Amino acid sequence: MAQYAKILRIPDAWQGAVRASDILWLAVMSLMLSLALLTFSSYVAALPLIREEWGLSNTQAGAIFSAYLAGYAVSALFVIPLTDRIAPATVFTVSAVVTVSASIAFPLIANDMYTASLLRVFSGLGLVGIYMPGLRIISERFSSGGRGAAMGFYVTAFYGANAISLSLTGALMARFEWRDAFTVLALISALSIPLAYFATRNEKARRLSTSTGLLNLKVIRNRTAGAYMLGYSFHAMELYAVRVWLPGLLAAVLIANGEGTNEATVKAATVGGLALAAGSVGPIIGGAISDRLGRAQTAAAIFALSGLCSWIIGWAGGFPWPVVVGISVVYGWAISADSSIYSTAITESASVEDLGSTMALQAFLGFMSGVVGPVLVGGVLDIFPENLEWKMAFSAVGIMAVVSIPVLLKAGDPKRTPKT
Fold first, then answer.
1. Rounded to an integer, what is the distance from CA 292 to the centroid of its chain?
2. CA–CA separation, 110 vs 401, rounded Å?
3. pTM for the full model?
């Protein structure tokens, strides 16, 4: 194992805790997730062009993105509890079909706020059955000693896919129309479907006769899990606000410096993707740190950093471009590094028979908060004058981060294995 750890740069928390075959399997799971999400940020990359083409306000533009999160959140209440009753692998593969189909349809059918929002709802519905059951499958396969890092690796693939989606869409738009760029990536994402089947076909999930497969709201009585759900909600609100509007902020800085709208849009999408790519390594680092220093303390410290970045970057319009890019890179890391900590803490604090319901509530509350973030920032941009809009918008994002810190510190650390 030591030789594989050195070659693959496996975190110390994994060494001696997992087999090389487990690492390979985790890599395949993560590749599948990355492929399924190739179009996740394509809408964001093309947003300035779509907004002009469809005549959208900033609030409407944010609402279209949030429709994805709303579909995820609402379907989570029905899809994820099924993993307490039927094999998570089955949910995983079927969901890949749903999200890929909706992604292929978007550039072919969407032509206004309503058709775009409907298709993004279905994309979000499919994602919930890939992401959360995937985390559950991973948590059941890895020992508690390396669970945080293992789940962090999967979440890292999620963030990496978002950055790749943004950068690739921006690069393709330099040569093609936004619909053509979207279509190319959507077709490539179809490779995730057979990969989902082959990665999970041998996974045997525990069937619990005591579970109905329906949502059990009594899990909210678990105070430790509830506190981490609240922290995850603030995290999602901040995360998706930044994912949607950071490229817009970067484009505004470039336009203010004399670049044309199309050139600024492409450059901002590419640079924004690279900045968010720094965040793609955040979850595995954050998860590994929390394995050693504790879930609550690590998440609170990361939240403090992201809040600080929010306030700085909103007022950085007059800074030199390389400085703005540097802040964006730190920001991209900070908004993602705590993500896997919440899912890991919740799997450790929930009872085994109610883990699906607990993760469903986590997903619902978190992603409904994620719905609020982009719309809130869009509303602030619409309300304030041009000289203040980005300053006030990202100051609001900073507040989201800071209010969660005392909640996390009060929650403390859960036990390192799920309750039975």
1. 24
2. 34
3. 0.68
3-class secondary structure, 419: strand
Q: Is there a domain that residue 3 lies in?
A: no
CA–centroid distance for 291 within its chain = 21
Q: Which two tokens stand for residue 304?
A: 């403090």
Residue 372: inside a domain, yes or no?
A: yes
Domain span holding position 140: 21-201+221-411
Backbone angles phi, psi at 351, to 5 degrees: -75, 150
> What's CA 363's distance to the chain center, in Å?
11
pLDDT digits (tens, 9 = 90+) for 163-208: 788 888 888 988 889 999 999 999 999 999 998 888 887 765 454 4
Q: Which helix (H) or strand (E) holds 198?
A: helix 192-200
Query: Which residues contact residue 265 at a Cβ distance below 8 angstroms, ignoring those fewer than 6 apart?
Result: 46, 48, 49, 170, 173, 247, 251
Longest CA–CA separation in the chain, Å: 65
Determine the Cα–Cα distance for residues 375 and 270; give it in Å rounded to an integer.
23
End-to-end distance of the chain based on CA atoms, in angstroms?
31
Which amino acid belongs to residue 216?
Answer: N
Whole-angstrom Cα Rg for the chain: 20
